[in-house]
Amino acid sequence: MQTRVSVPRAPAVISRVGAQHERILRQQAARTVKSASASPAASSITTKRGTVVCRASSSSPGPIRSLFNLEDIAKPFISAKDTLNEGIASFYDESSGLWEDVWGEHMHHGYYPGGAPRDDHVQAQVDMIERSLEWAGLDATTAEDGVDRILDVGCGIGGSSRHMARMWPGCVTRGITLSPVQAKRANELAAEQGLGDRSTFQVADALNQPFDDSSFDLVWSMESGEHMPDKGKFVNELARVCAPGGRILIVTWCHRILREGEKTLPDDELQLLDRICEGYYLPRWCSVAEYARLCADEGLVDVRTADWSEQVSPFWRAVIRTALTWRGFVGLLRAGPATVRGGLVMPLMHQGLRRGTIRFNLITATKPR
């Protein structure tokens, strides 16, 4: 589904405690916990200087849980971080090697036409890159003369950047990530693949990018917007570094658009998102409507959105299956406790997509000349 948008301001979503947990987790709690008492706010990270909020909404007092969640098994073993950025960097420092070992160099969803399962998951991830570019009007033919400089915001280990460098042999790509481990590995892979002079990677904050204004023809963000605590500043930085006439493409997880009469998501949906936030170091979620408004507020034009939730629906089942293999299980344990917690949260992502709370959205816009 594709939409050309002109939207009003999206209403704020207020997160608070949910009244119900999944029945299976109640049963696990009954078996595991003889007497459960209220725990600290579910979606926050205790740090040496205070609390880093990881929550579905920015305006919430935080949920209070009285029952044990399965992912809490790993929580006591996860070291405290001073800031959200440190938590994100540490998570990817710890987990990226395992992901590469099992899934390869692309750290994002695959594309599954019509939601049909497929076994070639690495090719599905490549297809996600190419289909996203095609949807935005950028493919190897039409963009060959117009894309010389590409920025990959939240680049992981650089898979998307290197693929685009191969698509457009004349272009130069730059990638930024909060993870030193990812940046180092991305540069190693670029050198190994003969792209070291055209694809380079560094540690940098997407909300304070070390680039001059109007530096890039294409500003690309593949599943990094979820980690941005200030979505407005995020879009502002993407627009700032984009050259006039250049294109911005954001592929990201969102919560569903609120229905008529809703001022917030229901408690059970908010609680689901809050648990995912804690597992993956995510701040508040927003809807694709809010992203579209933020693009319009920046003066960007030709703003379009699409919902590819169906096209990614088999992905988390496939990831969960690999985690349940002996290789995946041992890899999770060896990687570290934050990765274990992330693994235990994966079924919640599948659940959120299946019930429609989580949407997989694309947003593209052009910076006026």
From TrEMBL:
PANTHER family: GERANYL DIPHOSPHATE 2-C-METHYLTRANSFERASE (PTHR44068:SF11), ZGC:194242 (PTHR44068). Belongs to the class I-like SAM-binding methyltransferase superfamily. gTMT family. One of its GO terms (biological process) is methylation. Keywords: Alkaloid metabolism, Methyltransferase, S-adenosyl-L-methionine, Transferase. CDD domains: AdoMet_MTases (cd02440). Pathway: Alkaloid biosynthesis. It comes from Micromonas commoda (strain RCC299 / NOUM17 / CCMP2709) (Picoplanktonic green alga). InterPro entries: Erg6_SMT_methyltransf, Methyltransf_11, PiNMT-like, SAM-dependent_MTases_sf. Residues 241-250 are annotated as: SAM motif III. It comes from the Eukaryota. Residues 151-250 form the Methyltransferase type domain. This is Methyltransferase type 11 domain-containing protein. Residues 150-159 are annotated as: SAM motif I. The keyword Transferase applies. Residues 214-222 are annotated as: SAM motif II. GO terms for molecular function: S-adenosylmethionine-dependent methyltransferase activity.
